[in-house]
Amino acid sequence: MFVRRVDPARVDWDHETELAIVGGGGCGLTAAAAASQHGVDVTLFEKADRLGGKARVATGQICGVDTPHQREVGIDDSADAFCEDLVDQQTAESSAKYDLNRDLITTVAGNSGAAMEFLGDVVGAGLTLHRGRFEMPGHRVHRTHYPVRDDGVVPRAGQPLTDRLEGTIRSNGVDVRTGFPMDQLLLDEDTDAVIGVVSKENPDPVPRRQPNHAVRADYVLLACDGFAADRELVTDRFPELAQLDYWGTRENTGDAIRVADELDLALDVPLYDMHGPFSVPDGIYLPNELVKAGSIIVNESAERFMDCGDVPYRVMDMRILEQEHGTGYLILDRAIVDEFLDADLTSHQFGYVLDDGAFDTADSVDELAALYGLDADALRETIADVNGDDPAYGRAYPHELEPTFYAAKIRPMYVKARQGIRVDRRLRCLRADGTPVDNLYAGGNASESLEGGDPNVYIPGMDLMTALTEGYMVGTQVAERTEAVR
Ligand SMILES: Cc1cc2nc3c(=O)[nH]c(=O)nc-3n(C[C@H](O)[C@H](O)[C@H](O)COP(=O)(O)OP(=O)(O)OC[C@H]3O[C@@H](n4cnc5c(N)ncnc54)[C@H](O)[C@@H]3O)c2cc1C
Q1: Lowest-confidence segment of 43-47, 158-162, 288-292 by average pLDDT
Q2: For atom 52 of ligand 1, which residue has the closest CA?
Q3: Are 111 and 469 in contact (CB under 8 A)?
Q4: How far apart are alpha carbons 122 and 148 in whole angstroms?
Q5: Among 143, 253, 299, 358, which one is most buried in terms of CB atoms within 10 A?
Q6: Atom 50 in ligand 1: residue holding the nearest Cα
Q7: Which domains does the chain have, with CATH numbers?
Q8: Ligand 1 within 6 A of 308 CB?
């Protein structure tokens, strides 16, 4: 039971707080930082032993609209432009099937500039706007920001940002409870208002009595992501993912959905996201800019099936999954490797990939085909076509693909499975009848997706933008509301 209706007078409250946050990842940390900065008393429950969630392990692309970084270099951007970029991703077929919530998209995008400003100025997150090569498709202007480490390296990871957020909330005196998952949401049995959270300390390996901690709260934010780590829920909602592995954190097991089911809240369309490519069998993540820089992907018949350089990575992953055994072979060459090692944005991460031995090398097409048991004549024909004047599927790269070849057998993994709680523009959870639960918020992957369930709609960096911005929005709103009642 995830929701319990109680008489507040009979609960043995451990503690009282103004804002209880469930989940200390991208959304929860930002909400805690924004609220505590204004003096709100915040208690943060985190299931894992450390903070950060998926935002910490993410590759760190964060899009933001009308941010200080964009303004500084004269980039004109707007929430409407961002919304149009999402709409442009829809196909004729998908737009007939899925509705995008333009109001929510423009509200979130419209607040993302302020959220980035807060993260930069108050939290001290070093962010840089990427304007060099390897821009991700789908954005009409440069709006991808990356966290920068103290030593100036852009590690293509969320961790520098989540570390800074953790520093901020600890110095603001937030009651941080790692290893304390939300176990139940408490409602007043008379008024049906949300009144608190029960958390159970994570069980030790040796079974013992687990103390319950009931924390009374004026406002609760569900920021505990989706259900990607719950295999049963994943295969129930998305049978096609049964053959894939998951890349992410193990705590994200769908607790927000369980609350929503028991409270009869409205849920949006289920959605998953893949990421890749990953080498087989080692599971090493190969930066997906690689495929934009002139690599090709062939299937087990040694044939290309898309211009992987020209599609968002989610679409690329879907195409790979459609091939026999859901497998592809990524082929690049020494010139591309050198280009990656030379570029600031990719050199750090790419160096690791090479050191980890993600690639096989071959000095001829025959050798390359033999590595994976591909038909050598078919592969020769494919590479000749790629190097010709008018390659099938196209290839926007000025150099021919030639030995020494670097190659890897690849598969996608899934990184996200979610079915968010529908929210109003203030991010309050909506009941099935459309009315808001006044003091219960949802943000990040626990709340409604901007993609509206359409698998074609994705612009890289939008997930972190959504999680961070929604956390910022909830934190500042609760600050305003508590200020009003003080
Ligand atoms: C490998 C990888 C790379 C990615 N790269 C990018 C990228 O470059 N750009 C981008 O935009 N997005 C990226 N994403 C997606 C992005 O990381 C997530 O969309 C984002 O972190 C979601 O934020 P969130 O706060 O909703 O969830 P999270 O950041 O996952 O935080 C949720 C937190 O809730 C905790 N939790 C779960 N259940 C409970 C409970 N019952 N009680 C208490 N705590 C609980 C979890 O432990 C976790 O810490 C990536 C994801 C992965 C896995």
Answers
A1: 288-292
A2: 58
A3: yes
A4: 16
A5: 143
A6: 58
A7: 3-270+419-485 (3.50.50.60), 274-414 (3.90.700.10)
A8: no
